[in-house]
Specification:
heterodimer; A: 89 residues; mainly alpha; B: mainly alpha
Chain lengths: 89, 316
């Protein structure tokens, strides 16, 4: 395998992949942190009230918030990265 | 930081770091990480019933992130995952009902029974996986040595190819002829009974509902040793399956009042980042080495639970 590919090109490719992954992580980390502050600040006391008054609605809201953190933020990250790449190219 | 739902006071930095470590391990081993998250939450004073539900909620988010990464790497068998969901959900409900029954005996009993069961399960898994992966690595080395002696070239496994010293167990299970028999192409399984998959998933589900978390620490090894799924695919598929079953577990536990979603969200901040790193790292390791590296994790979890049980009060 090593003899087939050019080692310099392979190294370059690996470095590029690592850099892309690092940028993706940084953007994602910033979004995830912002999301938590946003939810705690805006919905903290509302969620507490919901927990004591309507557990079914609380359960749905809880699941939506955690799924949102997992799905929506990654979609936003991908979108932002596409924008960054299209501007730099 | 005060978490009003569970009436606890925990440092958010502690939660983020705990989530990050669990995220890396979860993405790498395909487990929810409840064997660490559970003790970590219990250790800072979160009541055990909240530990179970809150941990499930944080696992949903983290598993979504890791499963998406594994899917991109070709490590997810969707067909297997969807079948397993059915068995797991029935199992989760059975386990959750078990917790409800225990609640009648008082909170102290819930803590004690779950804690002791947790310790026994974790130590057993660790010992078994350790023994098996060591045997497999030894077997591979002996084969390579024999091939060198006889001058015949030995076929080295590629990163994602897998084998186990216990392959005969899964081959025997593949021969159980209870229809319907199905094929799992991504996992490389030509013929297996649907009931075998459902049974493995059900057992994992019972542990998930009773002990909390996605019970990947049971299901991931079960998929490898009993169903014969390659380790990388077991990791990815387990995460995909955990997304669905843990979502269901979160809903049922939240309705029963066992979820503090604020704790879960703060933990997930670190877990989501860690899960991405863990998932990407699996490409660089072979199956037996991933399994051997898995061994200390349940033991750490068991140690923390034993300490909590012996001390009789949480460590602040």
């Amino acid at each position: 395998m090593k003899s087939n590919g050019c080692p310099v090109a392979k190294k370059k490719e690996n470095a590029h992949t690592a850099r892309s992954f690092l940028i993706e992580l940084l953007v994602y980390a910033a979004l995830v942190t912002a999301y938590v502050f946003f939810v705690i600040g805006l919905f903290g006391s509302w969620l507490n009230g919901l927990y004591h008054n309507n557990k079914t609605l609380y359960a749905i809201a809880a699941l939506a918030l955690i799924v949102g953190q997992g799905v929506v933020l990654e979609a936003v990250t991908s979108f932002l990265l596409r924008m960054i790449h299209s501007r730099t190219e | 930081m005060d978490f009003l739902v569970s009436n606890t006071h925990i440092s958010p930095v502690y939660l983020v770091i705990t989530g990050f470590i669990i995220g890396i391990l979860g993405g790498f081993f395909g487990v929810g990480g409840s064997f660490l998250a559970g003790p970590a939450l219990f250790g800072v004073g979160v009541p055990m019933n909240f530990v179970v539900g809150t941990d499930l909620a944080h696992i949903v988010g983290k598993s979504i992130v890791a499963a998406k990464k594994h899917r991109a790497l070709g490590n997810v068998d969707l067909k297997l995952g969807l079948i397993m969901v059915i068995g797991t959900i029935i199992g989760v409900e059975t386990g959750a009902q078990g917790i409800e029954q225990l609640k009648h005996l008082g909170q102290a009993n819930v803590d004690k029974v779950i804690g002791v069961t947790f310790v026994i399960v974790l130590i057993s898994i660790s010992a078994f996986v350790g023994w098996e992966s060591w045997e497999t690595i030894k077997m591979q080395r002996e084969r390579e040595r024999d091939a060198e002696k006889s001058g015949v070239g030995v076929k080295k496994l590629k990163a994602k190819e897998d084998e186990s010293a216990l392959d005969h167990i899964s081959r025997r299970i593949h021969r159980i002829n209870i229809p319907p028999m199905i094929t799992l192409r991504v996992s490389g399984i030509r013929r297996i009974s649907l009931w075998a998959i459902l049974l493995v998933a059900f057992v994992g589900g019972v542990f998930s509902g009773f002990l909390g978390g996605g019970a990947g620490y049971i299901r991931m090894p079960s998929m490898v040793y009993l169903l014969g799924v390659p380790t990388h695919v077991a990791v990815g598929t387990d995460l995909f399956e955990v997304v669905i079953s843990a979502s269901y577990g979160t809903l049922t536990h939240a309705i029963k009042g066992n979820v503090d979603i604020m704790i879960a969200l703060v933990m997930h901040t670190g877990a989501a980042i860690g899960a991405q790193i863990g998932a990407v790292s699996t490409q660089y390791f072979r199956g037996p080495k991933i399994r051997l590296a898995f061994v200390p994790l349940p033991l750490i979890g068991a140690g923390i639970v034993i300490y909590g049980l012996l001390a009789g009060h949480p460590v602040k």
